[in-house]
Hints:
Layout: H1 3-9, H2 11-16, E1 29-33, E2 38-40, E3 48-54, E4 57-64, E5 67-74, E6 79-80, H3 82-87, E7 94-97, E8 101-107, H4 108-117, H5 119-143, H6 148-163, E9 174-176, H7 180-187, H8 191-203, E10 208-210, E11 213-216, H9 218-232
Helix pairs in contact: 4-5, 6-7, 6-9, 7-8
Amino acid sequence: MDVVPFIQRDKQLRQFLHTIPDEELHLFRVKNYRRGEHVIREGDRADAVYIIVSGLCHVLCHPSSTLVQPRAQLGYLDIVGLFELIQNLPRVGDVVAYRNATALCIERDVFLRWVETHPHFLLELATNVIQRLYQDIDHICERTKSSTYYGVICALIWNRNLLNRKTPDFTGPVKIDFTRQYLADFIGKDVRSVSRAMEHLLSKGLISKIHGKIYVTADQVAALEREKLAALK
Length: 233
């Protein structure tokens, strides 16, 4: 794939990369990942930074040898692997494509050169990562602080917004194709209580099911926000 037209076709991406001159865009590499494929693997050498430009990835933690839990989710224009590369550390976790995903890869030697020649690019990346970490912390606190019902609503709103980040003006249905077990792990609740919460939301028309998959529209997000407030009372 010719990376320069790929970047220039995407206005949000090109704006994000505005500190990199057009004549250097060819130094990016486009990498595609199938569902379940590792973008980075814990313990590996940090040899690149990645910018997710399509699809969805999740960060995994390993609290025991038999249990793997989703720790965070990464979508459009999220950065992967920055701090390990800056600090010359091995990868501290796994990042896996939950859906088929595409990322722009900045190889180590290019990145270190750009740190010197385009320091504002590093600032853009670091700001992105810090903002996402704050959002992740806020979301973790929110989705785990109350009932399962409240946590499921928070997770659905979060995921719909994440999946729709590239097309924020789209108001139609967005498929939330996480399993109920995944949602249970994500909010730290029992899968049976998650199933009950999902069925209740379906019965109230706050989410939709099409061909066995859950979808959420912009109008339903607004209704879910109101339901979330009511669930705290």
